[in-house]
């Protein structure tokens, strides 16, 4: 098949003949840089479940390319049969992680492209799916840039910043969301002192955020998650910047487990707490955070992972939620590509979508 689009060279990309979706395996960072080329539905789903590709926007971008790769494997000229198989792949992938809305959002957008073009031959529909996947990624690049500009407008040169988990280029495209203002500011000659929570149990802060900041030449200090109060008490933090996996209509925000605790401490110490994310992470169909499904993960991630031997007795009960919900009352502002939303969020978030006429960003 000839491509009718120009594949992008990013951290999620297609191989030369468009038969595989490629990612940098994030589970191996920062020690090993290995690119995976994925083709079967099972290995694609496993990559999402195991966080080889992770971060809400990156999962969405990956899902777009993955559905294109899988669509190419459907061997039929019958459009209805093609659509039924495509739908089955969508269902299979969407069940891999429940919290980040971008996964379902991207898959829905891909399937809609196919359904709306059901009058065309299968081969042409597949081509349109490729174009749609590239568009999702291009839009994310633009959105991250705009989020970075909007976030940077709130930061002073020399500021002390606290961040949790990883919401940098690895989790998105190029700048990232929560790290975007810092990377953009650095390009413009600004200085920041960034404190990265290690982010137990999977250490996205230590392994990925510290790595991205170091690579960019930004002053970064790693903290254990339980050290946030101590650095805030010292007055070292001027603002908290975090990403988001799903924002409810009232501003309640699901993000990596531990985010809510950081927001509570920020309120206590009078530190502004900002959530940064694209409008594709806002889910107005969830009225409050109570409606957001929180992913529960393998207990062994707490008991064993990254240790040479288990650090808790075998069989001990473990509770391992991947995300928590930060109450909207703790959030100073939600920074999107379309501007900064302030409380009351039921009004400011709804206003973001008011002028949308079939637009996709
Ligand atoms: O479980 P992860 O590593 O996918 O969780 C990621 C986060 O919580 C990020 O903060 C969020 O997805 C925003 S990424 C721009």
What does this entry look like structurally?
This protein is α/β, with parallel strands linked by helices and 361 residues long. The protein has 2 domains: 12-144, translation initiation factor eif-2b, domain 1 (Four Helix Bundle (Hemerythrin (Met), subunit A), Up-down Bundle); 150-360, Translation initiation factor eif-2b, domain 2 (Rossmann fold), CATH 3.40.50. The chain contains 11 helices and 14 strands. Strand 4, helix 6 and strand 5 form a beta-alpha-beta unit. Helix 2 (56-72) runs parallel beside helix 4, helix 2 (56-72) packs antiparallel against helix 5 and helix 3 (79-94) runs antiparallel to helix 4 (101-116). The chain is globular, with a radius of gyration of 20 Å. The two termini are 29 Å apart. Residues 357-361 have low confidence and may be disordered. Residues 51, 54-57, 100, 165, 167, 171-172, 176-177, 204, 243-245, 255-256, 322 line the site of 5-S-methyl-1-O-phosphono-5-thio-D-ribulose.
